[in-house]
Every structure is written in structure tokens, then in C-alpha cells.
Amino acid sequence: MDQVPDVAGIPVTEPTGRIEPQVGFDVALAHADRIAEVEQCRGLDLSESCLRNWLHQADVEDGAKPGVTKSESTELREARKRVRLLEQENEVLRRAAAYFAQAHLPGK
Hints:
By secondary structure, this protein is mainly α. About 65% of the residues lie in helices and about 5% in strands.
């Protein structure tokens, strides 16, 4: 896909006209203090809520506002995945122990 510059010189793909989230996040960081939120949205063809979310996430990443940073979110997701795997392994071992315990019962 060919890249064409948008209003603010931001590369936008031609067919969809959508800005990549990371590019938009960088734009929000760069222009937050210079351009009013509504004007940014009009110039970049974004919804106000999308830009507001990017600005909020930027504040969280900078530590200006409380919240979960991207690295913390990734770490938490990996920890949950690991816990789920360990729980599955534990269930397999529990069932195997029950099976083998039943095989050694007297009378069988």
C-alpha cells in the first residue's frame, strides 16, 4: 500500500485512510500542548474519544495519572497465562494420581 501524507504530515494508508494507533499515539504526545483536542481530531480525522484515550494513556505512561502502563499490562497478561498453564498441569497431575491410586486398591 502506498503511503500518502495526511494533514499533519502523518503517513496514512490510502485504501482505508486510517492512522496506525502508534502513529496516532505519537501525534497525541507531540501535539497535546499545542493544539486543542477538537482541532486535532478534525485535522487527523479521529474521533475525540480516540484522541482522549491516547492522551490518557500517555499521561499514565509518564506517571502523571494513575493507571496500568503498557509494560505492566503485558506482564500481567503473561502472568495470568502462566497461572492458567500451571493450573492445567496441576489438574492433569491430580487426575493421574487418582487413577494410579485406584489401580492399587485391594480387590482389583
